[in-house]
């Protein structure tokens, strides 16, 4: 059974007993209609990775209108605002990412039916932006002042080829972040406290073009070499624990008009991840060797017009570990218990929390919505059929607020945990 340290339990109980904190929790529950409407407004402002400008402007304006008057678009396109505490020093960051995986023209509107919102990106991670707005309102309505300054941030380029770029730029541009709370799990019961190492590369095999019949035997085949490499990778054995994964996600070569031709180049994109430094290093070496060997084998097969290999990194995601009883994790667990949710620790993940964790900054990634115990909570993230259940969704906002207050401290009541 997971037990928080007695001194932290005492601090948490003191926080819960405070009239202002209870007022903020009640405000969040009563505010969910407005939070829902803000979510619906934001999700139709499409924001593919690298193209978040319109959503950033709208989100910054919404923050300004509710009192965060310094809200501005800063490093890397992130929307940044500071809610002042009573002391200087390291700040507590709470953030959600503004980008989604969908290209412009995907979101046609929001359908609300039987307590569920349907729209691409409605959960991942537009919901987090609405949560940030609600949390700030709750603090104001309850008259709560934190000890530490709180950074409210909408980040860019979290998804795909964005490679966690927005949060990386934020940490590069300012060194005053002492703790980070990311809002990006679909299930509030999950507490992600470690970061999975992940890298993605493009392996490009370059050769010569030629007729599939007339040039046969005079040159090596780029596609055949790529296929050799993928076949080797497909047979690679990884452990179940620590979780280690690989995926050849793209294979591009040839043209529609060149169905009877040798393709002059073939490109394979491979993503691989692990919760273990050792397993990751072994897998990376194998994958790189697989392409080297595949090109060599294809060249030796024909011994004419040799192929060459170019490798380009696409995204590099750092990982890291934390003590499962660090202050933020214990605060997250205690808050879940108070809200009647059975929490669990998620050891791996690729979220914005990775950047903080890799730098030794305490961080957790928390959830956006409520999932009844025993249900999978699959809301079809990254699918055009994505949806977000409204039932008890306010509990995720309350959870984030309680963790934030434990981290930042409440003036005249509790000291910061981190």
Q: How would you explain this protein's 3D organization?
A:
It is built from eleven helices and 17 strands. The protein is of the alpha/beta class. It has two domains: 6-195 and 319-408, Zn peptidases (Aminopeptidase); 197-316, Alpha-Beta Plaits (2-Layer Sandwich), CATH 3.30.70.360. The longest helix has 26 residues, at 277-302. The chain is elongated and about 85 Å long. The mean pLDDT is 96.
Structure at a glance:
With 418 residues, this protein is an alpha/beta fold. The chain is 35% helix and 22% strand.
Key descriptive features of the protein:
418 residues, alpha/beta, Aminopeptidase, Alpha-Beta Plaits, 2 domains, six-stranded mixed sheet, four-stranded antiparallel sheet, 11 helices, 17 strands, 22% strand
Give a topology summary.
Elements: H1 6-16, H2 19-30, H3 32-43, H4 53-65, E1 72-73, E2 79-83, E3 91-97, E4 111-113, E5 116-118, H5 126-142, E6 150-155, H6 165-173, E7 177-185, E8 190-192, E9 197-206, E10 210-211, H7 222-234, E11 244-253, E12 261-262, E13 265-274, H8 277-302, E14 308-317, H9 327-338, E15 344-346, H10 353-358, E16 363-367, E17 387-389, H11 394-408
The quaternary structure here is single chain
CATH superfamily of the largest domain: Zn peptidases
- Biggest β-sheet, characterized? 6 strands, mixed
Strand order of the largest sheet: 1-2-6-3-7-16
- Round the Cα radius of gyration to an integer and report it: 24 Å
Determine the N-to-C terminus distance: 24 Å
């Amino acid at each position: 059974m997971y037990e928080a340290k007695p001194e932290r339990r005492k601090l948490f109980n003191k926080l819960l007993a405070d009239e202002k904190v209870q007022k903020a929790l009640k405000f969040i529950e009563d505010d969910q209609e407005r939070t829902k409407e803000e979510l619906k407004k934001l999700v139709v402002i499409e924001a593919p990775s690298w193209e978040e400008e319109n959503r950033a402007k709208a989100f910054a304006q919404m923050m300004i209108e509710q009192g965060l008057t310094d809200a501005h678009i800063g490093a890397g396109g992130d929307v940044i605002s500071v809610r002042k505490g009573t002391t200087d020093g390291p700040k507590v960051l709470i953030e959600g990412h503004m980008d989604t995986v969908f290209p412009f023209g995907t979101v046609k509107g929001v359908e609300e039916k039987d307590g569920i919102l349907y729209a691409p990106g409605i959960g991942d991670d537009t919901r987090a932006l609405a949560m940030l707005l609600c949390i700030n309102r709750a603090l104001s309505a309850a008259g709560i002042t934190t000890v530490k300054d709180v950074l409210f941030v909408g980040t860019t380029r979290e998804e795909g080829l964005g490679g966690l770029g927005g949060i990386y730029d934020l940490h590069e541009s300012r060194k005053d972040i002492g703790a980070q709370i990311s809002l990006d799990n679909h299930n509030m019961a999950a507490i992600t406290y470690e970061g999975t190492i992940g890298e993605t590369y493009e392996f490009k095999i370059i050769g010569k073009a030629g007729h599939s019949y007339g040039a046969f035997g005079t040159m090596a085949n780029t596609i055949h070499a790529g296929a050799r490499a993928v076949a080797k990778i497909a047979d690679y054995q990884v452990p179940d624990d620590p979780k280690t994964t690989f995926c050849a996600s793209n294979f591009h070569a040839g043209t529609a008009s060149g169905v009877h031709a040798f393709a002059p180049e073939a490109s394979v994109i491979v993503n691989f991840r692990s919760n273990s430094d050792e397993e990751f290093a072994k897998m990376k070496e194998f994958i790189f060797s697989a392409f080297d060997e595949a090109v060599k084998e294809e060249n030796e097969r024909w011994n004419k017009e040799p192929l060459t290999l170019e490798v380009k990194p696409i995204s590099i995601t750092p990982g890291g570990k934390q003590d499962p009883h660090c202050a933020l994790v214990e605060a997250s667990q205690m808050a879940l218990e108070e809200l009647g949710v059975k929490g669990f620790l998620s050891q791996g993940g690729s979220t914005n929390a990775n950047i903080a964790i890799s730098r030794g900054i305490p961080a957790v990634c928390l959830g956006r919505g409520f999932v009844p115990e025993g249900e999978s909570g699959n809301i079809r993230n990254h699918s055009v059929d994505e949806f977000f259940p409204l039932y008890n969704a306010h509990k995720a906002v309350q959870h984030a607020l309680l963790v934030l207050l434990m981290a930042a401290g409440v003036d005249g009541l509790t000291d910061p945990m981190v």
